[in-house]
Amino acid sequence: MPSPITDVQWQTVRTSLKHTADRFAELVLAREPGAKATQDWTVADTAAHVAVIARLYTAQIGSGAATDPLPSLRSTVLTTTVDTVSDLNAAALAQFTERDTGAIIEQLRADIDVILRVSDGLDPEEPLPWLGDSRVPRAGVLAHLVNELLIHGWDIGRWRIPPEDAALFHDLFLVGLLRHDPGHLLDNDEPPREKRIAVQFRSDHTKPVTLVLHRGKVTVEDPRADNDVRLRFDPPTLSLVNFHRVAKARAVLTGKIAISGPKPWLLPRFLKTVRLP
User: Fold this and answer.
1) How far apart are CA 228 and CA 126, in angstroms?
2) Running DSSP on this structure, what letter comes out for residue 71?
3) Residues of CATH 1.20.120.450 domain(s) within the chain?
4) C-alpha to C-alpha distance for 138 and 10, rounded to whole angstroms
């Protein structure tokens, strides 16, 4: 089993959150608010989406009870799965109506300052409630927000995603979520497979780890020589592939993702469960 989150990782994700938020703020303020960032969202919509997540995390990140900024979404959050995240996003944006990018960025910066202040000195490994009644370590929650800034900054400005920052999402959020409790987040209609599928993940910026799908459940193990699939990846590219910004075929053809191992054909079946919105 991979080791718990270290103090170095905790400080790294905190520094990354502050730095990435500053980059994101500068990018948003330099763009026309009404310009398209994605097929459905403008720059202002995209910035508002990230700001909503940060606002929600101000109440979640501490060790005591805090006021829920969007209480009407509480039941939706608990029942959300990977496949229904878009519904939650739409409901949150409908409640957060601000579209002045200056005001959005001012709030985003203030909320990230709160997140960093409130979480300072707390246990980075402590599991916190998240979507689908899952549990994510505190450091993973910060890594998720870093990833939101990175992915949506890419949407707005096609900026460079530093690999060391992208790696935080894999190490602290994804692996952290699976080490603790994925809840109902990954639920789907796929019939459970009796045989294990073990997929090893390696990069120059992450800890080697194996994710195992067995009977519909996903667990975390240390890598072994007999793992079915070995996947070597560039962290920014894997993030962009996972969130449907870059095609899988392109990532493989450019060498950013390399797939090997004795049973590489099992990877598509694995990815039907281990997936992101």
Assistant:
1) 32
2) G
3) 7-180
4) 9
Map residue 150 onto helix, strand or coil.
helix
- In the chain, residues under CATH classification 3.30.1050.10 are 197-271
Report d(CA 200, CA 183) in Å as an integer.
22
Distance (Å, rounded) from C-alpha 61 to C-alpha 51?
Answer: 15
pLDDT in tens, 87-134: 999 999 999 999 999 999 999 999 999 999 999 999 999 999 999 999
Predicted confidence (pLDDT) per residue in 18-47, tens digit = 999 999 999 999 999 999 999 999 999 999
Torsion of CA 76, 189, 245, 86, to 10 degrees: -20
Positions in the chain short of pLDDT 50 = none
CA distances to 193, 252, 262, 267 from 258, rounded to whole Å, are 25, 6, 14, 12
Identify the CATH class of 197-271.
alpha beta
Give Cα separations from 114 to 42, 56, 101, 138, 180 (angstroms): 27, 11, 20, 14, 25
* Domain range 7-180, CATH architecture: Up-down Bundle (1.20)
Structure tokens at 261: 């191992």
DSSP state of 111: H
pTM over 0.85: yes
